[in-house]
Model the fold of this input.
Amino acid sequence: MVALGLAGCGGDGEDGGGDGEDGGQLTFAQAKSPIEFDPVVLNDVPSAEVAMLVFDPLYGYGEGTDLVPQIAAEMPEVERDAQRWVVPLDSDATFQNGDKVTAEDVKHSFVAPVEENTENAGEFNMIDEVTVVDEETVQFDLQFPFGAFEQYITWEIVPKSVRTDNITYGTETDEGNTIVEENDFAQNPVGAGPFQFVEFEEGNYVRLERWDDYWGDPMPTLQEIEFRPVEEPTTRVTTLQNGENDIVKTVPPDSYPTVENMDDAAIEEVSGVSYFYLAFNCNEGPTTDPEVREAVDYAFSMDNAVEQFVEPAGVRQYSPMPEVLVEDWEFPIEEWQSAHNERDVDQAKAILDDSDSVPDDWSPTIIVPPDDKREQIGVSVSNGLGEAGYEAEVQRFDWGPFLEKYVSGDPGEYNMFTLGWAGSPDPDTFMYFLFSHEQIEVTNGTFFRNEEMNDAITTARESNDMETRRQAYVDAVDIIMEEKPHIPSYNLKNSFGVSDRVSDFSAHPVDQFSIVSGYNNTSVQ
Amino acid sequence: MGIYRYTIRRLLQAIPVMLGVITITFFLANAIPGDPVQILLGPSPSQSEIAAIRARYGLNQPLWQRYINYVLGVLQGDLGRSIFYGERVTAKIAERMGPTLLLMSSSYAFAILTAIPLGVISAKRRNKPTDHASRLVSLVGVSTPSFWIGLMFILVFSFHLQVLPSTNLVMPWANPTEIRSAATRLDVLVMSARHLVMPMVSLGTLQMAALTRIERSSMLEVLSEEYVQLARAYGVTESTILRKHAFRNAQLPIITILGLQLTSLIGGAVLIETVFQINGMGKLIVNSIFRQDYPLIMGTTIVFGVVFVVGVIVTDLSYAYIDPRVTYDEVD
Amino acid sequence: MATTGSTSDEVLDTDEGVGEADSEIESRVGWRYTLGQVKGDPTALAGLVVICFMSGLAAFATLDAVVFDYLSEYAVFAQFGMRKYWIAETFWISPVKEPLGARRLLPPAPLDNAYGQGTWDHPLGTDDRGRDILVRLVYGSRIAISVGAIATVVGMVGGTVVGAVAGYYGGWVDDVLMRAVETLYAIPFFILVLSFIAVFGRNLAFVMVGVGIASIPTFSRLIRSEVVSVREEDYIEAAEAAGVRDRNIIARHVIPNSFAPVLVQGTLQIGTAILIVAGLSFLGFGVQPPTPSWGQMLSKSRGVMIENVWFSIWPGLCILVTVVAFNMFGDGLRDALDPRLKN
Amino acid sequence: MTDPILEVRDLQTHFFTADGVVRAVDGVSFEVYEEEIVGIVGESGAGKSVAAASIMRLVEDPGEVVGGEVSFKGEPIVEFEETEAGTRRPTDAMLSNREMRERIRGREIAIIFQDPMESLNPVFTVGGQLREFIEINRDVGESEAREIAVEMLREVGIPEPRERLDDYPHQFSGGMRQRVLIAMALSCEPSLIIADEPTTALDVTVEGQILEQVADLQEKYGTSFIWVTHDLGVVAEICDRVNVMYLGQMAEQAAVDALFHDTRHPYTDALLDSLPRPDRTVEELRPIAGVMPEAINPPSGCRFHTRCPDAREVCRQVNPDARDVSESDERPHRAACLKHEDVFHEDYWSSPPIDNETDSGFAVGRTDAGGSGDE
Done:
């Protein structure tokens, strides 16, 4: 009903945002260049940041983590104990080429990742079947009752005919997947979102302009957005200072005071739905021994490391559950926090010296991705271990090699690693991907095996009962806090340096930021 | 021998060199550990999918077969397909060539236009304060890391003084209608110049310093030549001597060096493009190495090799143009 | 070769003796002269002083960071408490670990910034982890000097061999070798080193070898042209006439006599190598943390350049001063060896 | 006889080097009359070329003309006056650099350098270089200068001169290039040409041809020459009068016949003895003992005494200037040797001889030079 109401106001918005009012042109510095804009395929933050303005999702987020129907007309009807989800579509929803958004398009958007086996296929492997009930109704049948599915139907909708016409398909593989040879759609996206794609030069810019016939509401005030990649954080801050960009993404912790002290800019931030951690190789090597992991926790102070190298750009986090989820689900955070050891090098040394799993000349390897904060955490661990008499080596790798190494389980490659995970506002998006046995070697590089924990995660995943799920997650996290395959580290804020020229721009916990929504509408002087 | 035949002969001579470049880069790039297909497909691809991708990039063939195919491909102007972008390597390079060539040529122009007067003045006022100052500048210039100069420039001119932009180089040939806050071609040129000045100076400083040193010593040598004395003895003014009688001869070593310095200029461009976020070949190749996108590594290296070889041929041609003693038979 | 070896070696003995004595006298005279010239050149002397100072620091750092680390594995030494960074940690401050409660990004002593007031405990300030910048600069000299020197030696040896053989034999050998060198030259050295590291890993040894290989063309071209001109001189012809084997001629006569310009180039090349390694560190291809190196410090300082610029200035200055020193000394050496070029 | 066109008085040119002051030219006087060829002879290092360059004021840094007078047709090319502080400074009347350039160089005095291979700029055509100098010094336009150049090249014996104008120097042989340089000098129609060892680098046959040609041309154009050479044979062939230089000073000055047949200075004698001549065998040739000491640390007294067969003790004390030692009916004949006791009034003959013959001149020269340095 709410969605219908919003759609009804569309006409007003259009008038307001028409040629009469020019909301200006925004330049936005991203942390990296986007690559492609096909939501079915894209799997990187910069591309997603652009795509979310060109494509409208089935459901979007409100100001917090609450879901708001977007292309869907209202909240889904959940049937058969959350194994069947029926979604009615907004009849006004139109793509930028003038075609109506149909149930067929929605179905395509959800099945294409699996059919083409894109990097997003894993997100929808629980879907059994997507059925087009009628032109304005889609029905999802799942393989098991899956309460968290609502976090997965925030998926962006692509126009099936335009997309498939612009893709060259190759042969079919044995598993029935189709290989995509060329994807022109990813370079010339057409969606149902408030902004139209204008031009893209990889590494240089992406330009979007307001779609003046946007069917939804509100009509954006902004006339045009230009995204520019500025990879180096200090340089991003510099471009904010000298006016090259209106908004810069991710203010590094040390630059917080710098941006705060700027006369004509401020920081816009919100806690993200993310989790950063130190993880152990529980596959092979000394760190398979829980005592050793305990000792590492004693050897250094995560509190101190986070305070020095992450704050104020993030906050200390004591469990795999980000703050938002802890609040929403009322998880026993105090209890988990107490599982954390205060720094005690002597204790660490005693444990390590006595442990049979640890050779006297043990020199653990800590691999870190190309991110200063996570590297600093790794160095802190290394220094702590050094004081306990074990020289640890920190190796920083680029994303490519890092992602390959951290799921190898080879203690020659790593004994520990630091990494992070950005999920959706449901514990499943963290617990399943980071700890379930199924995801070992995929997104779980700990190789930590504990049947009790795995069962709990599966139970929670395959249930729609809030209380059952909560208890299962509490059980799983308890085990994790006890066995320490991870030492939780911090939660990063989604932070932006925003020039005073910009008004009504908003950071968002899940979507990173919001340009235009039910609660904000960005404009530039 | 005519200039055309000479050029053709030089190009022919370049063939074994380019073949060597192709061979070295092919085997180096293929020796980079890590499976590019893995990176391309992400976690948990199916066996058949891996096979299909391998077949698509020709990775299912033995190394020597791939090498031969690659060389044959290069001969037909086909550098393969980037694994990361999925685009043709030639298309990607064509896209990134402009900024790099702009950066390199403007840096060279900056280096030449500052080094020549500086070197000439230095030689003319040998052991005078001007000379000492110019020699100090060139000594410091050849000894300062270019990327550090760039960083300091950004800090001073972009952050503190806020007078110059630090990123997103605008190409002078960009369409004014597509550039924000530019209405005419002139606007675009001004913007481009403002963007270019810091990267240009950072990259050009080393070349400038090196050239100044050569220009000075070369000028000193020429000024002590007998034909310069003779010109003096016939009443030619000092300025005419500098401008005409000594100048042209003194540029001969500079020309040779310009060709050879190309390789250090390219190395510097890699760093400077990273510092100033210039979307050129240098950044492309660094990223390709990070991403183990070896068709792109090979393609970029080969193109750089071509730039270098062509650069050397061009300098040799201009050498022969300036120095009549050198005929096209002798240059080698 | 093996069967004729003994006879030709015998023939060689006498000749070698003569040749050796000759060239030794010649080079000794040359050395004394050269050093005398350099002594009279204040710039070269200043360069030499800085080089000696930096090399001294580097030697000290190597002792403390590498030798002690190695010795500490033996109980004999370990019982004295000998370990990596023993001297630094006992008498001064650790170059790799920040003290508990370390204060990050402090400015040099008399200044202050957003992180606080500089203290004389850290005269040049502290880095992004709160470690003392001065001690890290001292220990960072090890990487700069050793990588610069070793890479240059690799290039020098490689280049000398290639250049000498090509220049001496001429003909197709020369053609093939020089074409190969040209190939190496046509691949921009930075990219060559980058791919080299990508292939073999970010081990310091590979960085040195990579930079060395990349500088082979410079040396081989230089020595080839020297060899070609030296080859024409009488005593080589005399040696040839006396039946001395080729490789001995090259090794004992040609190379020593062509060495002067190579030495000059080598001195200058060390400076270049230091700059290249700094550039590699900047791109993240340097030594792994926490081992201190100037390039890596520069690279780390980039993220806090606005907040504490000193963290960037000090390692930059160290690189600058060291490379300037090598250039000044190299220039002086060249002037001494070739007075014609002297100003 | 008329007034000389060039008069050099007590010319001093010093080089200020890091190792000390080199007195390359140390008080030289001579003159050149119209239409005559005057030779300046000496071993290398004697200061001949520096003297020649000093006349044109073309001495290069760190060299400097520090004293004496050079006047050309009455104009002061070099002129110094004493300041109150006792130092010397150029007089106001001395020609400025600009006047030198515009009125003297090329126009009045032209020069031909030793090495024809180095004297022409390799990157310009021969015609271009000729034309430029002609245009500057004869105030003519481009085409006229070109005609003069062609004419002059023909005059000096270059075949097909018009075609060869567009050739570059490297396309000419050494002899041809020297002819070009001679043409260059003549074409500016100067009153005086200074030829600084112009034929030394050439082979003997070419040298002969060129000398002959120069002699003819000199007659035709009436130009005066200063012919700097180390070769007494050349002097004998073309010079009217000769100046013999030794270590920056004049040893003997005389008409060419007088010099050869009535030699008045032991150095000239020695030079002549070392000259290969058809009437002597190789055994009879007597090279001058020892080498010339360096001008940075000249011997005390007579500069030649370290190598002089006639040297006596007094020669170590007294440095004679070149004085007229001619008989009353002769043309002037100057020599700087104390053995002309009637002119110099030093007790030469009563002074004990120095034995330079037995020891190698080198060793003696060194000891004596060292000894005198200590005094």
Remarks:
- Residues 78 and 495 of chain A are 35 Å apart (CA to CA).
- Residues 1-20 of chain A have pLDDT under 50 and may be disordered.
